[in-house]
User: What shape does this take?
Amino acid sequence: MKILLVNKFFFLNGGSEACMFDGARLLKERGHGVAFLSMAHPRNIVTDDPAYFVSHVDFNELRGPVTKARAAARMLWSREAKALMEEVIRKERPDIALLHNVYHQLSPSILSPLERHRVPALMVLHDYKMVCPVYTLFSGGRPCELCSNRRFSRCVSKRCSRGSFTGSLMAATEMTLHHRVFDAYRAVTAFISPSRFLADKLPQMGFSRPVHHIPNFIDARNLRPQPAGEERSVLYFGRLTREKGLRTLLEAVDGLPGTCHVIGDGPSACELRRMASERHLENVVFTGHLPFDELANRVRRARAVVLPSEWYENAPRSVLEAFALGKPVIGARRGGIPELIEDGVTGWTFEAGDAADLRRALVLALSNADKVEAMGRNARRSAEQRFGPDLYYERLMAICRTALEGR
Assistant: This one.
């Protein structure tokens, strides 16, 4: 089977890219051919597989009204991406298209050539873009579902796009055109969600298409676990943004008899460093972004990984990566996180936004070395059995076969 993988970025920008590249390796191992459609970018990886790229655009660095107008038109309907998809289909003749994050830089214009050439399109949902103009279902520091049933104007009144009226208006206009006027995603054969939470939440918000649930996978073969040793530390790694609940984490570790490492970067970095300084949190260490090998070694030395998110996390890969490295995870009971963590077996869960409840779990992790070690073994076993590549591949192929039969 020849499978075309589509994602707007062709470098490790986040979870959708990791899922695409891991999925491509798995498909090739199982004997399938792959090709890629993405966007040109200086950070793009080098591949021996066929790869096609639309021109680069950075929506955060647009200057001048003409440039902004062209970028807005591309976001709504990219003629360039549509033409490139026609070329890819003609040259590569894919049996299936597996779409990941395609919004804005590629746009749903790529779907009409797939529909015309009868190439089934499977779309993996990494966020809530099908129902939320700003992807996150998070506004004003808390989960938000005001745009349910396609009432996208709420995004404008709340200025959900970075507090900008213009940006929020553009986001609401995009959603209105794509979902209410053109029904642009009708050409998608099947939608796939990595979490049950997202698969259930979308129909609650008025999304009318069926959503299949296939959990993400992790290939643990090259991730070696090791005992934590004597170091009394916990660790967060990921983007430093408001919805990740990091202010709650800093409140919870105040005076804790152990070190909290915060690894990563993002728009909240300065605010969090200032908070730690004002509170004299000498046990909090900010490291910035780290290469994966160094990050993995930090995780191995820690007692547990912490995920204090306050938005509806979908299926965070950080949990699976921690499990593969033999570490339990302390995660907020929000979104898809509780689906991944077996409370008291592979980690602990706590009430999202509750610093006292998070502190309770942190104390358990720092004061029970033997318990943590046993939970780490359980976590590794979970990575291999619940989230291994074999089960993922079987479920994906079942959907592919159904899509091809329906064609």
